[in-house]
Amino acid sequence: MAKPSPRLAARALILLEDRVLLVNAYPGGMSDLWCAPGGGVEAGASLLENLAREVMEETGLTVSVGEPALVNEFHDPRTGFHQVDVFFRCTVTKGTVSSQWRDPEGVVTERAFFSREDLALGRIRFKPDSLAQAVWGTGCHYDPLEILVK
Question: What residues make up the domain containing 22?
């Protein structure tokens, strides 16, 4: 049986007042894992267009997409699932985060801003492991293949 092709996704690193916006993409509290907003890309649209659409769906924010900050890969050895995430630095151009916002697909149920200390001290569970380095660092980083966690 042929292995499935890797899935490509784009994710946003949004900093406001030195805090990063993260989302919980597990409906009904199925997991306490937080990640950067974004998701799978659709063919025929650029990574930047896909990312702007995903951020709007998940957060209600309009963003300007900047330079790449991280390429991260993760996989599930049991199923063969493999995803490549490209993280971009983004700036909010319109909107504010609201608990009233509803993701039209019902995937993201929570969104919140976290400090560098929240991540460093393990106050939340997040992925990828190199998220803080990408958010508060410079340049573009590569985070090698991680095992998928939920």
Answer: 7-147
Sign of CA dihedral 59, 61, 102, 118: positive
Counting the structural domains of the chain, the total is 1
| Tokens, residue 23 | 């989302």
Residue type, 49: E
Tens of pLDDT, residue by residue over 4-49, are 789 999 999 999 999 999 999 777 768 899 999 999 999 999 999 9
| Structure-derived torsion over alpha carbons of residues 112, 115, 121, 122, reported in degrees to the nearest 10 | 20
In a domain, 2, yes or no: no
Q: What CATH number does residue 29 fall under?
A: 3.90.79.10
The answer as to whether 29 is a domain residue is yes
pLDDT band at 1 (very low <50, low <70, confident <90, very high): low
> What does the alpha-carbon distance between residue 78 and residue 85 come to, in Å, rounded to a whole number?
20
Cβ atoms of 93 and 12 closer than 8 Å: no
